[in-house]
Amino acid sequence: MIYIAIYFAAISLLAVILTVHDKHAARRHKWRVRESTLLLVAALGGSVAMLLTMHVIRHKTKHAKFMVGIPIIIALQITAAILVWRLI
Q1: What span, in angstroms and rounded, lies between the C-alpha atoms of 56 and 41?
Q2: E strand or H helix that includes residue 54
Q3: I want to staple 23 with a disulfide (CB 3.0 to 4.6 A). Which of 11, 39, 51, 59 is the partner?
Q4: What local confidence, expressed as pLDDT, does residue 23 receive?
Q5: Cα-based distances in Å from 38 to 9, 57, 81
């Protein structure tokens, strides 16, 4: 159980770092994080942290791919967690 908590803490931290880096890079017209990478990190468990970070720093909040896609990912993750919990 502790390993699961460590994993989600690490992937959430990565999600925050990538989102903040992408915002910083966008302002300076530098190398950006691919949208597919951001969505992959969200799908791997960083979705809540990424969505909150995007709202706080106002990054990609006008992109439906993120503002609709990440909540869908969160819903799927919650559904999967409930199903796994029932199996245990």
Answers
A1: 18
A2: helix 47-57
A3: 59
A4: 97
A5: 16, 15, 21
Furthest C-alpha separation in the chain: 49
The domain total for the chain is 1
Q: Which of 26, 30, 35, 29 is nearest to 66 (CA)?
A: 35
CA distance 24 to 15: 14
Instruction: Report pLDDT for 34.
Output: 97
CB 66 within 8 A of CB 60: yes
Domain of 54?
2-87
Per-10-residue mean pLDDT, the chain, length 88 = 95 98 97 97 98 97 97 98 92
> Helix (H, G, I), strand (E, B), or coil: what is residue 44?
helix
